Succinate--CoA ligase [ADP-forming] subunit beta
Amino acid sequence: MNIHEYQAKQLLREYGAPVADGRVVTRAEEAKTAAGELDGPLWVVKAQIHAGGRGKGRFKEPDAGDKGGVRLARSVEEAAEEARRMLGRTLVTHQTGPAGKQVNRIYIEEGADIERELYLALLVDRETSRISFIASTEGGMDIEEVAAATPEKIVTFSVDPATGVSGFHGRKVAFALGLKGQAYKDCVKLAGQLYKLFVEKDVNLLEINPLIVMTDGRLRCLDCKMNFDSNALYRHPEIMALRDESEEDPKELEASKYDLNYIALDGEIGCMVNGAGLAMATMDIIKLYGGEPANFLDVGGGATKEKVAEAFKIITSDPNVKGILVNIFGGIMRCDVIAEGIVAAVKEVGLSVPLVVRLEGTNVELGKKIINESGLDVIAADNLSDAAEKIVKAVKAAKETN
């Protein structure tokens, strides 16, 4: 689960990390009052969306201006005006895709005199099963660009969970960032604060980019991205309360209500599969035969008829879907349950695109019988390769017909 920058900074503040004072506004008329509560002479006005690259982004609406989603203001009135221009507008960045995201919140915070921009992050390293620090002197840039162009400028190390974080780790980060004096001391302290937050709140990623050294020699977390392990949210109602459903894909949000693992993609062939590995293999083979998957959807091993029906409805609600491939290998998941769910969903929402079904495993004959006797216009497939080839051909044929 992702949260906004202003929410991440509130968590940082609770753990003692250095952040600027700021105010969040959702209405333009609140902006002047919010800005007036902060010390000048510089204010930073930031669009709050769940995507990076805001500063380099552009708004779709001309009246929003062409300054991107992070703007500087030198008066309370200017800060309020910039907030007004951005609220309710659609910001497009390299992470949002061409559709962009509507800006429903603006964060106004005090400006800073920046001497250096650095990069610091913590994440779960799946190779070592430990929390790792990532530090770089190249702050303010996408870390992927730094890794590609100058990988030697990135320092990474993990923390042994048996001993936990210590001053040694903080000094290692400070040394990697080339810090001295007060900034060095601030960094040693900050490393411990971030690690404590990471562990106690079940964070997946904590990225501060940039971490700045100000002209007074102190550190400050200028921006922060944070997301959490969704499987651990039951332990953190205070984190769950930060969820902004307006930032999520409506289909993914609906899927989460039924405990379905769904991720929307840009293709045109909807997929319903049981098992994450099989779902990824299905997506791969669709691409192999020249198609593009419209989603990742794992209905899980213990899906009910109702859950399968909801999954099918979510797939068909995507206007980009021009064909559907159901690929079930029944182990724990029974093929007859899948078949009943598909039939129930089609009877409710209809079927206007080609549907290919491949069933194998537990109760496969009963599942095929249910499909065959349903009267649905279904294309049967014998194996995964056959299924992918048939759905790609069917979608192409439907396009040519239309």
The domain at 21-110 is CATH 3.30.1490.20 (Dna Ligase; domain 1). Residues 137 and 177 are 5 Å apart (CA to CA). DSSP finds 13 helices and 19 strands in the chain.
